[in-house]
Amino acid sequence: MKKLLKLFARQDSGAVTTEFVVLVAASTRLGSVGYSGVGGGADEVTNVDPDASLQRFVSGF
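User: That's the sequence. What structure does it adopt?
Assistant: Structure tokens below.
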């Protein structure tokens, strides 16, 4: 039994895999949050009437 416990304690490849999975999950979540933030604002920019924007700008002077 002692031999088995010593062998188990020396093998740390599972810990590295676990850390890698956590890092990948965190970076994926951050990417999806960033994408959703940028994706929502794209409609506001593409649906702009250039003439109305120019009229608002000129009326400010």
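The mean pLDDT is 75.
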